[in-house]
Amino acid sequence: MPQLTMEGVYHNGIVILQEEVPYNSDMQVLITFTKKIPKRELYAHTPEIQKALAKAEANYKAGKFKEYTDTDALLKDLNNAR
To answer: Rounded distance, CA 13 to CA 30, Å?
Structure first.
């Protein structure tokens, strides 16, 4: 059976497509949040990546990072870390 998915608002017994929803400053509004992740960003939402990002943010907030002004010094430290 074919299915159709569209975003919109159900109001007074009719469905109004999202692009055609009228706005009036005195009307009641129901906001529904959905999480849509673009395919090219899905990798960043894996549990492993989320854990690594959380760890990196914690290290940054704790001051556990090093700043570089010289690219050669950065590359040297990266090579030594292997």
So the answer is: 15
Q: Are 15 and 9 in contact (CB under 8 A)?
A: yes
pLDDT (tens digit per residue) in 8-57: 666 677 666 666 555 666 666 666 666 777 778 777 778 888 899 999 99
Q: DSSP letters along 38-80, please?
A: -GGGGGGGSHHHHHHHHHHHHHHHTT-----S-HHHHHHHHHH
Higher pLDDT, 3 or 81: 81
- Is 2 inside any structural domain? no
Evaluate whether residue 30 is within a structural domain.
Answer: yes
Tell me, yes or no, whether 53 lies in a domain.
Answer: yes
Count of structural domains, the chain = 1
Q: Which pTM was predicted?
A: 0.43
Structural domain that includes position 25: 8-80
